[in-house]
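User: Fold this; tokens only.

Assistant: Input:
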Amino acid sequence: MRITNNMLIGNMMRYMGNNLERMEKYQKQMATGKKISVPSDDPVVAARALKLRTDVSNVVQYQRNVDDAESWMDITEAAISNLNDILQRARELGVQAENSTNNSEDLQKISAEIKELRKQIVQIANSTYAGRYVFSGYSTDKKLMNDDGTFAIDALNSEKINYEISLGDDIDINVPGGELFDMGNSAVKGNKCRLIQVMDDFITALDNGDNGAVSNIVKDIDDCVDNLLRVRADIGARMNRLEFTRNRLESDYINFTELMSTNEDVDMAETIMNLKNEENVYRASLAGGARIIQTSLVDFLK
């Protein structure tokens, strides 16, 4: 086989191009900090990177869901806490009103305060989070209770608003208004809320000076407090579950991020070493190529 100068030069150019391409690969890795820039660089690494990026994205979304759920339940718990304070104050006033030494003026003062507590119960029933009514079930765009204490919607159902907080795991974040304010008795649209009815009966008894009726109302308030404590305990259990889920998601985020970094990020020290090696090879090929290109018949005639 006859070897010509064109063949030597062609091979030289091809090998120099390969050397330059390898050097450019490590230069790109140093600039981006990533092992690959397109899937064809390493299909296995690329496939694993897509899976890990999806996992991290899912974890971030679940963290947003947990934040939103926690905020909703914080508003709910605060409303229940305020309602508990109102009922405790109403009970204190009931015990005070039971005393037969109260005159009509004393009873009117107690009645005036009970009327204000009644208004506050309506305000709590219509508590909102981000413009959504928290006790209205799925009807978050509609208030639960009218100013007169009747239900503005049908609150007899047990509509649960669920948030997905991890893969295959969701949690209901709301408390149905009928369960809290009416104890699930007759919370249909147009009916008066039981808590409001108790307050109205309290006001009527005070206006009539009926101490016996006041004693019965104190018992009704105790029943309402017991129901409220049951609902509050359930909210607390769910909030604890959210806290555990938040901690697990934070751990998952760190783990997936570390795996993603291990899979995609280059070892900078190794990359620098490889780049220097390829640079030396390229410089050597340039030097060898220069000797091949410069050689001609004239060189041998000197």
